[in-house]
Design brief:
The chain is α/β, with parallel strands linked by helices. The protein has 14 helices and 13 strands. Helix 1 (18-32) links the parallel strand 1 (6-10) and strand 2 (36-41). Helix 3 packs across helix 4 (92-102) and helix 10 crosses helix 13 (326-343).
């Protein structure tokens, strides 16, 4: 039997994020399939380092000091030294550098689109042009695949969709026996960033409180520069500190969902939303913006889908959720769990990647 094939997987860092969690799933499944994956990072954040070490997967941290030229040289050197069977990128910045290296050095390269492009910027145009040197382009959402079909037809032959994986045994329902629903508890897991639409969400929550509804929200996520300060200032202005509480991200999200009545993701755009799938798998109703792949994921199960730019619509959906009784919560949660189990498959997820790795 030959030596296990080395797969190098590039991502900016091991910070708490959806792409990082998906990459950990992928390397774990590849390892079980007999491959030898390693994760390469180039920014210092070790949020998932312990989880990665527990899998027995190597972590290669490159010292690039923010310099693009150093990054190019370091990427080229690690590819030469490791001589991988295939390189996989889960980061836009890494994908661009790897495509540039691919112009001069032969190796199999799979790049990944982890978000949905809403407006084509000059950087997007450059990235998509560089993708001409990649062997495969993987979108984790149908919405991004559809966008690329229209905007980059020259990449259609090498573009495919692999939606995110979710371990439905890890994310499973909890018992709700005897739970009071007088005050609903919502959980949000997302960065405190403009994409996540926090300021409009705060405005909607003020309207919900003013209408007399009892709800509390716990938001877990990394702050995003000055934006998080704007959010906190608005919370303080409206006196919503007891209603909306901001927490640091947690590494074991499955332990959090069991404490809540529902999950909300008010983003103005997403790729494929891990959080909604996790919450559904845990048997929770979900509230989300009508964007990207969200409606495909939540289906027609009685969840609450709103226009994320319309604060009144968001407010109305939160209030509809607050009016649910225990029986309705359980019924929506059961349908969500059934849908999640039907959508997510570890074999389908890893086998699609293996097919691209071995093509």
């Amino acid at each position: 039997m030959g030596e296990a094939k080395k797969i190098l997987c590039f991502i900016e860092s091991l910070e708490a994020g959806g792409a990082q969690r998906q990459l950990l799933f992928l390397v774990s499944l590849l390892k079980k399939k007999g491959y030898r994956p390693a994760i390469v990072t180039y920014y210092p954040n070790d949020f998932y380092a312990e989880a990665l070490a527990s899998m027995g997967v190597d972590h290669i941290m490159l010292e690039v000091s923010g310099s693009k030229m150093k990054r190019f040289a370091a990427f080229r050197r690690v590819i030469k030294d490791e001589a991988p069977h295939c390189v996989v990128s889960f980061s836009e910045s890494a994908s661009m550098v790897l495509c540039a290296i691919r112009m001069f050095r032969r190796f199999r390269l799979i790049v990944s689109e982890r978000n949905t492009t809403t407006q084509m910027s000059n950087m997007d145009r450059l990235r998509f042009q560089l993708y001409r040197w990649a062997d495969c382009v993987v979108c984790n959402s149908h919405s991004q695949t559809q966008f690329m079909e229209r905007a980059t037809p020259f990449l259609n032959a090498k573009t495919s969709t692999i939606i995110n994986y979710l371990d439905t045994d890890q994310f499973c329902p909890r018992q709700r026996e005897g739970k009071s629903t007088a005050q609903k508890r919502l959980i949000v897991l997302a960065r405190i960033a403009p994409q996540k639409n926090v300021l409009r969400f705060i405005e909607a929550l003020k309207m919900v409180r003013d209408d007399g509804y009892a709800v509390t929200v716990d938001w877990y996520g990394h702050p995003w520069e000055d934006y998080s300060a704007q959010c906190q200032a608005l919370i303080d202005k409206y006196g919503l500190g007891d209603l909306l509480r901001i927490h640091a991200p947690q590494s074991h999200a499955e332990r959090l969902y069991v404490e809540y009545d529902g999950c909300c993701l008010p983003s103005i755009y997403e790729g494929f939303p891990n959080v909604l799938g996790e919450a559904m798998s845990c048997g929770l109703p979900v509230l989300c913006g009508d964007v990207c792949d969200n409606r495909f994921l939540v289906g027609d199960n009685g969840n609450f889908v709103f226009n994320p730019y319309d604060i009144s619509d968001m407010k109305d959906k939160v209030e509809e959720f607050c009016r649910l009784d225990e029986e309705a919560l359980l019924a929506i949660g059961a349908r969500n769990r059934e849908r999640a189990v039907g959508i997510f498959s570890s074999d389908e997820f890893v086998n699609k990647y293996i097919k691209l790795i071995e093509s």
